[in-house]
Design a protein that fits this description.
single chain, two-stranded antiparallel sheet, binds magnesium ion, binds adenosine-5'-diphosphate
Length: 449
Amino acid sequence: MSSGALDVIEFLLTTHLYDKHQNLDENDLPPEIRQVFWHEGSIERPLRATVENAREAAGLDRPWEAISDLMFTDRDEFSGTLELTQPEMAEKWFLDRAADRVAANPTLAYAFEDRDDVDADYETARDENRPVQADRAWIDSLLAEHFSDEEEEDGENMLDLVDIHAPEEVELTLDDLVLTENQEDEIKKIVKAIEHREYLSRIGLREIGKLLFVGPPGTGKTSTARALGYDLDLPFVEVKLSMITSQYLGETAKNVEKVFEVAKRLSPCILFMDEFDFVAKTRRSDEHAAIKRAVNTLLKSIDNISLIQDDVLLIGATNHPDQLDAAAWRRFDEIINFPKPDDQMRADILRVITREMHIEDFDPPALAERTEGLTGSDLRMVLREAVLDALMENRTDLRQDDLLRAIEDFEERDNLKDLDMIEGDHDALVAGGDISGAGGEDDGHSHDH
Ligand SMILES: Nc1ncnc2c1ncn2[C@@H]1O[C@H](COP(=O)(O)OP(=O)(O)O)[C@@H](O)[C@H]1O
Ligand SMILES: [Mg+2]
């Protein structure tokens, strides 16, 4: 019997049992199955087991053909639905062949946990099932419900200001990142706070859950925030603050409010604000009044959102802590430092990013010694160059020497890049030109000079 038939029967049994047990909710449906039923942020009974839904849920082109031989199945050609004519028989057929699947399907676990031939329990299955807010389909259906109409009418779009990632779309986990002890402790602390938010609310401790990541570019701030979303199964709502200036000005403040509204609807979630120094910069400069208004709205919205009450974890990040003013600082209850990695960390980062490779004579500590001042992001770039250079020589075997050579190239290129940063001063690119005026925006290069 093909696993295709098992997939389709599991789908039909699940929809049947979910309709029958009204106390079950969306978190009792496996993600592959519930993805086809979202409508405006919820799933309504009865679940329609159409051929099309079965096709998508089971990932099978011809779901009916996979089960048409079974005597307990039927298809209604007119309505396009599949059904189980004798559910008990379907249950027995399924459990004889795939009782081990029950543990991964809370709806089935609920119905079958007391049977002798089933080794699964409902509570565990539900705990291990991915929560709904991790589904892209859920996020999209919510956004469509609350925000689609208005956007299409106005030219400007609230969704330009945010980028939303479902945990299932994030590839990076905390295991892929090399963190300092302090970073790990802070992350553990926040994970505990999230787990115990009801308790914290009860004892009146609400000033928690606003983190500021501070450090030079390429030290893992964005990656850590995203990985946290992945590990905690939380949607990741990224606010692109720089978009505030490019928006149609009159509507910007309103759109900032909408961003927070989105975050509250998607909660529990992470609300991430990169380039937070933008806020302070705007307050200082003589920007357009509408932009200032938008930034003030932003600060007010930050004050009004809370991990304990709204289930929104706020993370800000900045490469320029020196530019933040007191008003910006005081909105965060934890500052987490992202320093450039030390020797030990660089060696560990090299180990992590080469995990899937074999490198001859690989000596991470020796490479770490040669890469003082480089960030995790720089090290990734070095590795990429080493791989590409080897490919140019038609080699897929990588050696320590390739990495050493790539480090030298990187340092050379980094020097050139610094020259390139001097805006409009082309003389500086000529050998012997005066480069003493180098300065200004330093995003993107990560060496101290
Ligand atoms: N400590 C680290 N451990 C592993 N990878 C890192 C680390 N720091 C940076 N990287 C890698 O460098 C790249 C850029 O990191 P990113 O998170 O965008 O840095 P930032 O947001 O601080 O500028 C990512 O691919 C990330 O995986
Ligand atoms: Mg970043």
